[in-house]
Amino acid sequence: xxxxxxxxxxxxxxxxxxxxxxxxxxxxxxxxxxxxxxxxxxxxxxxxxxxxxxxxxxxxxxxxxxxxxxxxxxxxxxxxxxxxxxxxxxxxxxxxxxxxxxxxxxxxxxxxxxxxxxxxxxxxxxxxxxxxxxxxxxxxxxxxxxxxxxxxxxxxxxxxxxxxxxxxxxxxxxxxxxxxxxxxxxxxxxxxx
Length: 193
Known about the structure:
This protein is globular. The protein has helices spanning 4-14, 19-26, 30-37, 45-55, 179-189, and strands at 75-77, 82-88, 98-109, 120-127, 129-134, 137-142, 146-150, 155-158, 165-172. A hairpin with a 2-residue loop joins strand 5 and strand 6. The protein is α+β, with helices and mostly antiparallel strands. The chain folds into two domains: 4-59, lambda repressor-like DNA-binding domains (434 Repressor (Amino-terminal Domain)), CATH 1.10.260; 64-174, Sandwich (Jelly Rolls). The strands form two sheets. A six-stranded antiparallel sheet has the order 1-2-3-9-4-7, with no helix packed on it. The protein has a three-stranded antiparallel sheet with strand order 6-5-8, with no helix packed on it. The longest helix has 11 residues, at 4-14.
C-alpha cells in the first residue's frame, strides 16, 4: 500500500471527494481509509476494489507496468490481500492476457470474496497449495494443479499451509488501465457498438 495508498489519496483529492464521503461509500471507517492512503495498513482485495469503484478508477490503473517484453522477476504490484507479494509479469503492450505471480505466506490470501472486470482467470500452483473458494465451493490445488474459471464469479483464495506457497495467475483480457477501456469492453461484450 506504500505506493497504492498515495495514488488513491491523489485521485480522491483531485475528484474533490472528502475522506468521510469515500469511506462511507466504500463501507469502511474514515480512520481505516486514512491509514490506507498513507500506506500504513493492508487492505483486502474486495475493499481495494470497492475503493476503486467509489473513486471511479480501475485497479489496473494502480499498477506500474513493465515497459519491455522481457520481464525479469516481475514488477511489484498491490491488488489487496494479506501476507503476500505480487508481481506483474506482462508488459504494458500486452492486450490479450495479464500474468501475475503471487507468493503467499501461511494463511495469506485475498482476505475476502470478490469478482474482476475480466472474462477468464487461469491459476497454476507452482509451490505449496492454494485453497480457492469459487461460488461457495472450496477446491484445494496442489503444486502442479491448475484451474480456469470466470473472473465474474465470486471467488476468494488463500494459502492453507504453514509454509510459503506460490501461484501464477493469467487474467484475460487484462485488467483495464482506464475506466473507458472497461466500459468499451463491456459494450462490445453486449454487442453495443
